[in-house]
């Protein structure tokens, strides 16, 4: 009987170790942002600058932008990359808590209008009573609770920058 108990204990221990090892490999593969997507394509995101009815859309290779702007984080890396490429202009202020946009292309914080950033990345959604949403091309976006340098940039995400009047 003791012999069977030892064998069963050894098998259970072996099963536990193999399961833990498989879980580690699975978790690392899923969260590795340095690899391309499973289809072999580069990780991309959409940036939309919405000025009234006029929209300027940018498709950005995330890894290329983040690599070129390694000193910047979040949306600021994407904006700095596009600015360096001559695609857009922007100004931002560092509040001590991160970067806040004051101007992007023709959009400016002036005359009661303020730059507002909307996203489809749920981790950045404003979930307070002050949250607002917009619809662009049939898809709904929620304003970001994070500042531009703290926003998450994920494969296939879309960020819409526009103004709101207070």
Q: Quick gist of this model?
A:
By secondary structure, this protein is of the alpha+beta class.
Give a structural overview.
Helix 2 crosses helix 3. About 17% of the residues have low confidence. The strands form two sheets. The protein has a six-stranded mixed sheet with strand order 2-1-9-6-8-7. Strands 3-4-5 form a three-stranded antiparallel sheet, covered by helices on one side. A hairpin with a 2-residue loop joins strand 4 and strand 5. It has 166 residues and is of the alpha+beta class. Helix content is 29%, strand content 32%. It contains three helices and nine strands.
Ranges where pLDDT stays below 50 over 5 or more residues in a row are 10-38
Given helix and strand content, the structural type is alpha+beta
Please identify the oligomeric state: single chain
Shape: globular
Largest sheet: 6 strands, mixed
SS strand fraction: 25-35%
Helix content: 25-40%
Residue-averaged pLDDT: 83
Tally of helical segments: 3
The secondary-structure element order is HEEHHEEEEEEE
Annotation, overall tally of beta strands? 9
Quote the distance from N terminus to C terminus.
78 Å
Strand order in the largest sheet = 2-1-9-6-8-7
Give the radius of gyration: 22 Å
């Amino acid at each position: 009987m003791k012999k069977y108990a030892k064998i069963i204990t050894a098998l259970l221990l072996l099963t536990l170790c193999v399961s833990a090892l498989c879980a580690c490999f699975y978790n690392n593969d899923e969260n590795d942002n340095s690899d391309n997507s499973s289809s072999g394509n580069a990780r991309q995101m959409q940036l939309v600058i919405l000025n009234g009815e006029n929209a300027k859309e940018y498709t950005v290779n995330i890894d290329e932008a983040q690599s070129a702007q390694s000193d910047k984080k979040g949306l600021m890396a994407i904006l700095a990359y596009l600015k360096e490429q001559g695609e857009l202009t922007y100004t931002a202020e560092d509040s001590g808590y991160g970067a806040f946009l004051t101007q992007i292309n023709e959009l400016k914080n002036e005359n009661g209008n303020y730059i507002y950033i909307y996203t489809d990345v749920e981790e950045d959604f404003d979930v307070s009573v002050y949250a607002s949403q917009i619809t662009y091309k049939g898809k709904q976006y929620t304003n970001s609770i994070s500042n531009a340098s703290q926003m998450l940039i994920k494969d296939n995400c879309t960020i819409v920058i526009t103004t709101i009047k207070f």
